[in-house]
Design a protein that fits this description.
By secondary structure, the chain is an alpha+beta fold. 19% of the residues lie in helices and 35% in strands. Strands 1, 4, 5 and 7 form a four-stranded mixed β-sheet that branches. A three-stranded antiparallel β-sheet has the order 2-3-6, with no helix packed on it. A hairpin with a 3-residue loop joins strand 4 and strand 5. It folds into two domains: 30 residues; 80 residues, no CATH class.
Length: 124
């Protein structure tokens, strides 16, 4: 017994969409981890932590808080090219990205993924 035409088209369309998604995920640039260079506090918001990372010309950058404890805040930076065919000179540029803590930093230490202290930046 043959499957109805609509059902065959939907099944085939889903298979094609799934294959396309896998190909795009394999080709599209992934985020590369970059360690934080320094940090500072936003003087207007006690829960805003400004993280300096290095990225390239036109890169998409972000910072994530990996863990907040009573004694430390663990952060890391990420960057990626906006498109797979992006081709520009790889020149390191500083990017300042604000993340929001659950509570003011206080006496807690800012550390990278390895638990090494990130230096405080006095001005930027």
């Amino acid at each position: 017994m043959k499957k109805p035409l609509v059902r065959r088209l939907l099944t085939g369309g889903l298979v094609v969409a799934a294959c396309a998604a896998l190909i795009i995920a394999a080709v599209w640039p992934k985020y590369q981890e970059t360690p934080p260079e320094s940090w500072s506090l936003d003087p207007n918001d006690p829960t805003a932590l400004v993280i300096k990372i290095m990225g390239g010309i036109g890169t998409i950058n972000k910072v994530t808080i990996l863990q907040e404890t009573d004694t430390s805040v663990q952060v890391t930076g990420w960057w990626r090219w906006p498109r797979p065919d992006w081709s520009v000179p790889l020149v390191a540029l500083p990017y300042y990205i604000t993340v929001h803590l659950k509570a003011p930093l206080g006496d807690r230490e800012v550390v990278n993924r390895q638990g090494i202290a990130v230096p405080e930046e006095k001005s930027h």
